[in-house]
Amino acid sequence: NAPDGVVAIELRDLDLDRLAGALAPYDVTLPPTIAVAAQDHGFSPKHSNRLFRFEHWRRLLTPGSTLADHIWREPPEYMTRLRAIQADAPGAIVADTGPAAVLGALEDELVGQAAGLGACIVNVGNQHTLGLLVRGEELFGVMEHHTEAMDTKKLDRLIARLVTGAITHEEVFNDDGHGALVLDERYRAAGPFSFVAVTGPNRAMAAPLGWYFAAPHGAMMLSGCFGLVRGVRALQQTPARR
Questions:
Q1: pTM score of the predicted model
Q2: Least buried of 3, 37, 65, 85, by fewest C-beta within 10 Å?
Q3: Closest CA to 104 of 237, 233, 238, 229
């Protein structure tokens, strides 16, 4: 309990009651399905945060894995922020923001067509810069770094090395990033994926590079939202998934 004279402020990512109250004057009601994306680094009390984050990617990036595998009914126990959101909204479907944005970029018609053959989709977020090699929605490689440590030249170099499959985990991790992983045999057979699309709030960093600026349904800033919708549809069509 708060001491006398002190106002207790409850911090949370999601307050459905207040959200419903804010929408009510406009005759808008909350739908039965709630989907939320939040950046969740993963809780690692006894381990390097950066190594732990990339171990998370290694667990998820396996032959045949897809972007929709990152949309969860039940997130891993160590994704404590996403689990806290579900505690406030039982039954909510959740995702990390980076994969949600990349999945949403596929809703851009040109990106979706290019990804049918293979593409590299980059989300330059506020904290993380994520590059994923995808064909359809299948994942072939990942590179994740901290946006504050990036500039146009480094972004160009790292994505070029990701696209060629030459990138190593060590070169990204030793630069204070999270790491990189390419499914070598599968990518050698399928790649390289030369088409690069970019989304995210800091996408202007890529402006000089000639990459395609994804704008799903005409709204780049809603890439993550469109990714959630796409992921929810995939879950509903395949109930056994995650």
A1: 0.90
A2: 3
A3: 229
